[in-house]
Amino acid sequence: MGMPDIDGLREQVRGEIVTAADEGYDDARTVYNAMIDRRPLLVARCRSAADVMACVRFAAGYGLDVAVRGGGHSVPGFGTCDDGVVIDLSGMRGVRVDPDAMTARAEGGATWGDFNHATHAFGLATTGGIISTTGVGGLTLGGGIGYLARGHGLSLDNLVSADVVTADGQSVVTSEREHADLFWAIRGGGGNFGVVTSLEFALHPLDLIYGGPMFFELEHAGDVLRWYRDTIGESPRAFGGFPAFQIAPPLPFIPEDRHGEPFLAFVACWAGPVDEGENALKTLRDVAPVVAEHVGPMPYPALNAAFDGLVPAGLQHYWKANFAKELTDEAIVAHLEHGPKLPVVNSTVHIYPIDGACHDVASDATAFGHRDANFATVIAGMWPDPTDNDANVRWVREYSDAVTPHSEAGGYINFMAEDDQVRVRANYGANYDRLSAVKGAYDPGNLFHLNQNIEPA
Ligand SMILES: Cc1cc2nc3c(=O)[nH]c(=O)nc-3n(C[C@H](O)[C@H](O)[C@H](O)COP(=O)(O)OP(=O)(O)OC[C@H]3O[C@@H](n4cnc5c(N)ncnc54)[C@H](O)[C@@H]3O)c2cc1C
């Protein structure tokens, strides 16, 4: 094998190769979660599938670890590594919309902000995440939970095809017709199967949504959670809101003397006819008085970016997550005990609905195996000061310990922290063995192992 010939790699790729000897190395190795501090051999800022192919062959040839980075949001920091090759796709963010076919093709490093900006111009959208800086690639390959999921399924349910650079350095087109086994596996199997350089999505007509955040007093949190539990399954699929424990940020629509206090928020997104939006929220308004709100018609990308300011790059992150079939009374008691103890304004707890169109797809039709769950809970610890690590991690763990007994064994792979690797099999659910077989076919040496890793059969 010999010493990795980095200059030889530089000759093969058009993107920049950044090593510890280069200016900008610290910037290049930095990921979103500030708790992650790794020193790769090199960061390859790829510009094309050809660059990615060269990097994969290089890493495989020298027996180096490969980390793949799109939006960089992985909480366990899968987008970087020690001593290996980081394939950084953040320079590959183009999005091409075909309005006649109602599809869009995004490069592997595009963010949801890039995607929504491009598609909104055509009055079209698909299910993406709730923050605009998250990567389309990482979010989709693991699932894709967002405002539009009840209406249009998970992000991966809207994937039509994808170009994948596999462990042998070849690029293949995957769809229901080509490499169908690989196409099945990348829809829920995360980054296990290769580097996805482009993703083609089905789009749906959407311009304005009606919604935004509403803040309720904590004394009404139980009523709002029970209202959500009891009504969401019967709500029209255009209704895609979720409850959240949230400290009030210093925003003009919240009374100044309430800034910094914890609330039960409900973030509403009505994606049906805008003039029906007010009515869609009526029963929620009947539950309890709203202390503060920023609700009304707005472009869908505006809601997608509305909370970006709360989660800038460079915070410390520690998350826990579970799927649940039911939001039981016992689970609500646990939420009511721990949610109000939010340590900082950046942290939050969301209970997403994943019913509706997410349930139209069979559990074995894609690799996402939790189609029987109705809720996906994430306890997202995010805080600016590393000296507060112990207190914030403790809050997340104690909260998680309280709700886990009322949840499924598995959780959403995209919300899992590094110390949750013991749950990997449960997280993939009944699809694990089939995933392992596909992994064995496309990546028998487990080159792509810096992820929620599936062992090759
Ligand atoms: C602030 C924040 C908000 C979030 N909101 C949501 C949400 O609303 N809904 C939701 O479902 N999830 C959400 N997530 C979780 C998110 O889906 C995961 O963190 C996901 O891994 C992020 O993808 P990324 O490309 O930004 O991250 P990266 O760190 O770049 O990638 C994470 C891993 O995904 C894989 N990967 C990424 N891109 C590719 C690619 N092109 N080809 C192959 N593998 C790839 C790799 O294994 C990579 O290591 C959120 C995360 C954060 C931090």
Level of helix content? 25-40%
Query: How many helical elements?
Result: 15
| Ligands present | flavin-adenine dinucleotide
Using DSSP, what is the number of strands? 19
| Class computed from helices, strands and strand pairing | alpha+beta
Overall pLDDT metric: 97
Distance between the termini: 26 Å
Low-confidence stretches: none
Radius of gyration based on Cα positions: 21 Å
Largest sheet: 8 strands, antiparallel
Question: What overall form do the CA principal axes indicate?
Answer: globular
Binned strand content: 15-25%
Describe this structure in words.
The structure is a single chain. The protein is of the alpha+beta class. The chain is built from 15 helices and 19 strands. It has helices spanning 6-12, 25-29, 49-62, 112-120, 136-142, 149-152, 180-186, 221-231, 277-280, 282-287, 300-305, 329-338, 389-403, 424-428, 432-442, and strands at 17-19, 42-45, 66-69, 85-88, 95-98, 103-107, 124-125, 159-165, 171-175, 195-202, 204-205, 208-216, 242-247, 262-270, 292-293, 296-299, 316-324, 348-353, 375-383. The two termini are 26 Å apart. Bound molecules: flavin-adenine dinucleotide. The site of flavin-adenine dinucleotide has 35 residues, from strand 3, helix 5 and strand 10.
Note the main attributes of this structure.
single chain; about 450 residues; alpha+beta; eight-stranded antiparallel β-sheet; five-stranded antiparallel β-sheet; 15 helices; binds flavin-adenine dinucleotide
